[in-house]
Amino acid sequence: MIKELFGNAASNALSGLTEVNSGVGAETDLTKMIGVILSAVYGVIGIVAVVMIILGGVNYATSQGDPGKVKKGKDTIMYGVIGLVIVILAFAITNFVINMLVA
Question: Can you give the pTM of this predicted structure?
Answer without folding.
Answer: 0.68
